[in-house]
Amino acid sequence: MSKSKMIVRTKFVDRACHWTVVI
Question: What are 1-23's pLDDT values in tens digits?
Fold first, then answer.
C-alpha cells in the first residue's frame, strides 16, 4: 500500500512538473 501510494504520488508530481515546464 505504501509503495503504491508513493508510486502514484511520484507519477502525479512528475506530471505536475511536466505541465509546469510545458506552461
Answer: 678 888 888 888 888 877 777 76
**Reduced DSSP (H G I as helix, E B as strand, rest coil) percent helix, strand, coil of the chain, to 5:** 90, 0, 10
Measure the CA–CA gap between 22 and 4, rounded to whole angstroms: 27
Q: How many residues does the chain have?
A: 23
Q: Which long-range contacts (CB under 8 A, 24 or more apart) does 5-14 make?
A: none
pTM for this prediction: 0.38
